[in-house]
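Progress note, sequence design subtask.
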């Protein structure tokens, strides 16, 4: 049986596709959203959904494995 390994570093338009951890915070709640895509795609998607881009950074391997264990949704940003 041949196993095909999909690289976690897919390049598109000169950017690397990653899972981005986006945080929104106000005095009533904290919200954490995971978005897969390149940086411009994730920014455009979150700005269209939330009206502005929150604080963000790329997820670490440890955070991704924890998200998989907890079965957190990872939203897919539309390709630009």
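Output:
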């Amino acid at each position: 049986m041949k196993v095909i390994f999909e690289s976690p570093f897919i390049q598109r338009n000169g950017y690397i596709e990653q899972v981005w951890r986006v945080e929104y915070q106000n005095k009533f709640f904290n919200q954490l959203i995971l978005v897969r895509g390149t940086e411009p795609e994730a920014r455009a998607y979150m700005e269209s959904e939330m009206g502005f881009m929150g604080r963000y950074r790329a997820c670490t391997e440890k955070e991704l494995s924890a998200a998989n264990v907890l079965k957190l949704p990872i939203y897919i940003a539309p390709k630009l």
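The CA atoms of residues 28 and 43 lie 23 Å apart. Work on this subtask will continue into the next period as scheduled.
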